[in-house]
Amino acid sequence: MITHVIGARPNFMKAAPVHRALASRGVPQTIIHTGQHYDVVMSAAILEELGLPEPDVNFGVGSGTHATQAAQVMVAMEAHLGSARPDLLLVYGDVNSTMAATVAAVKLGVDVGHVEAGLRSGDRSMPEEINRLVTDRLARWLFTPSRDGDENLLREGADPASIRMVGNVMIDTLVRLLPIADGERELRAFSLQNGTGPRPFALVTLHRPSNVDDPEMLRQLFGALDGIARQVPVIFPVHPRTRERMRRFAIDEGRVSLSDPLTYLQFLGLQRHAAVVITDSGGIQEESTFLGVPCLTMRENTERPVTVTVGTNRLIGRDTAAMRLEVEAILAGRGKTGSIPDLWDGRAAERIAAALA
Ligand code: UD1
Fold first, then answer.
1. Residue 96 in contact with ligand 1 by CB distance below 6 A
2. Per-residue model confidence (pLDDT) at position 252
3. What percent of the chain has pLDDT over 90?
4. Whose CA is nearest to atom 13 of ligand 1?
5. I need a surface site. Which of 49, 73, 217, 298 has the fewest CB within 10 A?
């Protein structure tokens, strides 16, 4: 029996292909949803699009401080493992649920496999970096998306026999669903169609504390986005955290088109047609690299360096003036081009299933 732990939006696209690959081999599986994300479009709608079965258990932990959220996952996981003991717990990515489930399981002697192991930004001010370090240190199996993951783990002293470079499971989901995410409906909804096809537009997501919890930074970002919106439409589906901060700091969106969070297919449908993506997300850096769409990342560092060295990603840090210059260059046809990293081929989950078999 293999049990998957999912909790927050970026986990869902990673778990879906692994669940599918194991199901096709007839492996018995269960799914635990910690409940870290609970809004319909942050969770249920996305799970449905991905074809993940209803979770067998939902811990319902909800929002809270990091310690509260992690502690609630640990308490619930410990109780759950008292009655149901899987042969392996699979955890994904770097969210609080990933780290907390791992700590509770390993203490009870349950083996953990970490999908998307080895990524490091080197920035311990990011909660995700702490989650990655703890999870990788404790997991029995370390499934990495790219060579840098293996190198980081080996440098930290991980057992080489525990590491498997399998490729990027997030891209598995993209490869499978791209044919049905044509974006037609979304382009129409945001008035992005003209007679001959989509007109150039910028697609934005920002939700990291470093960008949205600092009123001055968030104000500057919106100032720059408003400037870009004089040239091309700027579409910004807003994460609940960002929405709350905008309200609290009384920030006006100016000419930027805000929307509620989108489902996976809606967002992918827009992303494939975007002239430029501006983000602080991890997964979107990868998706834009695969799609060949220039990406400007509003962070000082990235745990996904291949998106910069091989792909279309550029790190802009907190420099909103540089962001505007880069957008101008991209709109003038001088955007960064890139290629697709090794093993980002839609078959990463099959490699995980093969390794576990
Ligand atoms: C989490 C992950 C982050 C990931 C992001 C993707 C951690 C440390 N962070 O950040 O790595 O990029 O998910 O979305 O795990 N909220 C709702 N509805 C929800 C969920 C959250 O309204 O369904 C609001 C709450 O006000 C909550 C805030 O969003 O306090 C933050 O949610 P939380 O799960 O703590 O972290 P994210 O910022 O979503």
1. yes
2. 96
3. 99
4. 8
5. 217
